[in-house]
Amino acid sequence: AAGVIQSPRHLIKEKRETATLKCYPIPRHDTVYWYQQGPGQDPQFLISFYEKMQSDKGSIPDRFSAQQFSDYHSELNMSSLELGDSALYFCASSLGSGRVGEQYFGPGTRLTVT
Amino acid sequence: AQSVAQPEDQVNVAEGNPLTVKCTYSVSGNPYLFWYVQYPNRGLQFLLKYITGDNLVKGSYGFEAEFNKSQTSFHLKKPSALVSDSALYFCAVRDGGAGNNRKLIWGLGTSLAVNP
Prior knowledge:
The complex is a heterodimer.
Chain A: E1 5-7, E2 10-13, E3 19-24, E4 31-37, E5 44-50, E6 53-57, E7 64-68, E8 74-78, E9 87-94, E10 104-105, E11 109-113
Parallel strand pairs in A: 2-11
Antiparallel strand pairs in A: 1-3, 3-8, 4-5, 4-9, 5-6, 7-8, 9-10, 9-11
Chain B: E1 3-5, E2 10-14, E3 19-21, E4 24-26, E5 31-38, E6 44-50, E7 56-58, E8 64-68, E9 73-78, E10 87-95, E11 105-106, E12 110-115
Parallel strand pairs in B: 2-12
Antiparallel strand pairs in B: 1-4, 3-9, 5-6, 5-10, 7-8, 8-9, 10-11, 10-12
């Protein structure tokens, strides 16, 4: 079965650079979530999109932005990177339309800021 | 405010013994409850969920969880632990109210170590 695809899997950036993470949800899933997970920590919810509209916002810094495109893939744009942004970034997708769908997670993108 | 508590940072159990990973929650309405497992350097994998119906929910890999409304708990259980069950387990809750807000509130995770 198709899973959530994230690219790239690993990314190394320097401070003050920008990064773009991509997420391709499971086909027919209409909701995408972004999470940040630091070492040994629980996932921190950043932002979510339902049918290409932002549906909820968590602890996403102002330096970050995200969007969901017409094909339902999503991109997380990160600017002015800081050392503290180094983390594992997960994307998850679910099927909405009023159903309580579990979230399916991608393998994550490991971002290292040096 | 919604919250999830996993009171144990770590659980150790011998292989073949039953295991329990605890989770309590607080939501304003009816809860939707989830358990996820995370293996090292991997994404989170869905194990099971409780939406409504039977309080005992069966999930993947032989895991089950019992919803207890009076104790606001949703403990994860398995009758016989395997070494391969060693991983990080996260409990999550979502408010069952209407709307498109599907944000999950996560517990801090419990590290399960199953010893041979």
